[in-house]
Amino acid sequence: MTISLALGSLESLMLVAVRIVAFLVIAPPFAHRGIPATVKVMLAMGLALAINPRVEAGAASSTAAYMGDLLLQVVIGLALGFLVFLVFAAVQSAGSFIDLTGGFSLAQGFDPMSQVNGAQFARLYQLTAIVLLFVSDGYQLVIGGLVRTFDALPIGESIDLSLVADAATTGLTGMFLATIQIAGPLVVVLFLADVGLGLLTRVAPALNAFALGFPLKILLTLSLSSLTFLALPRIIEALTGTAVETMLGVIP
């Protein structure tokens, strides 16, 4: 029994798989260390097999040209994954902002799963965002956006880095704005609590503002954080749409 494979089809399969692997390495929720690398590679190869019939790419003229195409696909995958990561980083940033204003940042530690330093709310918000992406099928929208990039940006064409830079700048601004929108109400309450403790100390100097401040702010944070936590499903839904639009927006 003889099985023949077209060289152009095999090369295009590898190019598609390289772009997908580079994307999955950095884009949430697949970038989480809790997902084994074997699963990411299997997912990338499965998607590449499904996408490859839609890709029109002939055999490379030389080994150097093919290696250049592979490097180009790595750059495209990393750029698209970074834009998606930048959008969803707003959730973890909001948790870090709450930790900072609520006093929980004093108990931060290294998280080996995400490879970042964070306190309780930063980890909680990040893990909740990942769970919501899988439960609500938001990850399918992210993968669908990645698949559509092969139609808008076929194999062999380069991405416009100026568009990526503009999208990254806009995404960074949007990340800070989303962080304030998520954590803003609770941060305002904690700020007013600090102001109230300051005024109380001026009225009664014998009171220790630090001794009263930490328990009060922790109580307020734990009591009111449920309001922002309940809004996370709608926030993740909106961020998923924004991530797909940002990813497709860098492709002319």
Explain this structure to me?
With 252 residues, the protein is mainly α. The chain has one domain (7-246). Helices cover 75% and strands 2% of the residues. A two-stranded antiparallel ribbon has the order 1-2. Helix 3 packs parallel to helix 6 (161-203). The longest helix has 43 residues, at 161-203.
Features:
mainly alpha, two-stranded antiparallel sheet
What count of domains describes the coordinates?
Answer: 1
Instruction: Give the overall average pLDDT.
Output: 79
User: Number of helix segments?
Assistant: 8
User: Which strand-content bin applies to the residues?
Assistant: under 5%
Structural class: mainly alpha
Q: End-to-end span in angstroms? A: 46 Å
- Which strands sit side by side, in order, in the main sheet? 1-2
The number of strands is 2
Please give the radius of gyration in angstroms: 23 Å
Q: The biggest beta sheet, please? A: 2 strands, antiparallel
Enumerate the spans where pLDDT stays under 50 for 5 or more consecutive residues: none
Helix residue percentage: over 70%
Which word captures the global form?
elongated
**What are the secondary-structure elements, in order, as H or E?**
HHHEEHHHHH
Membrane topology: Multi-pass membrane protein
Family: Belongs to the FliR/MopE/SpaR family.
Keywords: Cell membrane, Cell projection, Cilium, Flagellum, Membrane, Transmembrane, Transmembrane helix
Protein name: Flagellar biosynthetic protein FliR
